[in-house]
UniProtKB/TrEMBL annotation:
Residues 17-248 form the ABC transporter domain. One of its GO terms (biological process) is quaternary ammonium group transport. Keywords: ATP-binding, Cell inner membrane, Cell membrane, Ion transport, Iron, Iron transport, Membrane, Nucleotide-binding, Translocase, Transport. One of its GO terms (cellular component) is ATP-binding cassette (ABC) transporter complex. One of its GO terms (molecular function) is ATP hydrolysis activity. This is Iron ABC transporter ATP-binding protein. InterPro entries: AAA+_ATPase (IPR003593), ABC_SmlMolc_Importer (IPR050093), ABC_transporter-like_ATP-bd (IPR003439), ABC_transporter-like_CS (IPR017871), ABC_transpr_FbpC (IPR015853), Mo/tungstate-bd_C_term_dom (IPR008995), P-loop_NTPase (IPR027417), Transp-assoc_OB_typ2 (IPR013611). It comes from Methylobacterium aquaticum. The lineage of its organism: Bacteria, Pseudomonadati, Pseudomonadota, Alphaproteobacteria, Hyphomicrobiales. Belongs to the ABC transporter superfamily. It comes from the Bacteria. Pfam families: ABC_tran, TOBE_2.
Amino acid sequence: MTEPAPSRPAPTLAPALAVEGLACRFGRVQALAGVSLTVRPGEVMALLGDSGCGKSTLLRVVAGLEAPDSGTVRLDGRLVAGEGARVPPEERGVGLMFQDYALFPHLTVRENIRFGLKGQPPAAREAADELLEQVGLAGHAGSYPQTLSGGEQQRVALVRALAPGPRLLLLDEPFSNLDRRMRDRVREDTVALLRRTGTTALMVTHDPEEALAVATRIALMRRGRIVQVATGEALYRRPESLFAARFLADAAEIPARIEAGRAATPLGAVPVPHLPEGAAVRVCLRPEALQVAGPGEGFAAQVVRRTFLGAASVLHLGVPGIDGPLRARLPGPGPYGPGDAVGVTLVPEAVLVLPDEDDASS
Ligand SMILES: Nc1ncnc2c1ncn2[C@@H]1O[C@H](COP(=O)(O)OP(=O)(O)OP(=O)(O)O)[C@@H](O)[C@H]1O
């Protein structure tokens, strides 16, 4: 008689990166104050936050360049820092790419890329050449970095970081040295290359637009802590705090209190079922929360200024009872100009109502 097969739990894929309760202090600065974060295999996670909030420190702790005061780091389920473990950076299987690319000026592009492949079989060098080909730089293999454009240098640095086939790629502000025109293209190419190579990545940025463009999920940081982890769309459309809402996009804010499950504004009341009666809130109106029509429709407003952006234009609107102008966005040049009377209505699903962090009584 054959023994029944032991029932095993379905195999679960360990997170590519799991950090738990990380704390890191430099003198009086608490750079990390209890950070927990999980990055799934194949994911591109952005670490988003203001200067000094601890993004680079977190990256350095994951890379092994900094030891945490407490907490743990696991890569593919393997403990590499904390609880007595301290695996050196070169044994973590992690790739690093810095803002300044850190290319060796005295080595050619090919030599730069092969630098991290010493001791690996010839197939690794061939794979690296293939990557160089994929990013369109095969013709520059013999060139020195300083003879390349900023975008080309960025690609060399990316290929160098990817060549050893890291389990996790850590990128610190990888696009900030590029001018705006080039940045969009390089971002797209980078994401495509990460997808093609199936690389898991953790990328530091202070730019919400960049995080939205590149990441599968965003971890928003503030003062050494992570305040929200979500897809870009969820973070943008459903921020859990006023801080998150403000970080992702500018908005006009109207202070209000919840009464009978609603927040009143000079543009009408907004239902707020999820906050308690009497709570002090801010009603945040981003441009997409306002619909503009001719006078007589909705609430009366006046165009103060119009900024033409090409594909769209932004109207700055004065509304009685609201301090400062509201901004609305229209496709193309739009029919309205300064001084025009218009009608404004709220787009309820685009209005954000969040607890007022600045209000001491809430
Ligand atoms: N080696 C260090 N010695 C002393 N203080 C440090 C050190 N590294 C970081 N800090 C401090 O820790 C805090 C977090 O720095 P960190 O570089 O992680 O922030 P960041 O979010 O990456 O900022 P930025 O975008 O400006 O690089 C800052 O106040 C910084 O001055």
